[in-house]
Amino acid sequence: MFKIWAKIEKEHKIVKQMTYENDGKFAWAEFFNYLADICEELDIATPVLLKTHIFSYAKFNRVRFLPRDFTEPVDFNYLVLENIIL
Prior knowledge:
Blueprint: E1 2-10, E2 13-22, H1 31-42, H2 51-60, E3 62-65, E4 78-84
Antiparallel strand pairs: 1-2, 1-4, 3-4
């Protein structure tokens, strides 16, 4: 089981947040699917997932997506995903 805290930040304030929970084991091959589920729940477009994003999440347990990572215009500064360590 793992949990990911997702939050949307605009001007250094959290405007929307959610906790994504999955009963299965975390798999790096499924990271895009986790991201897509989170974005669907937050009702935003899914950003482009690059190796640097995956490496950041793997090394720091946190990744930040900027507006330039989205193919559609967004109305926030960051989408942040943080691993909740159980």
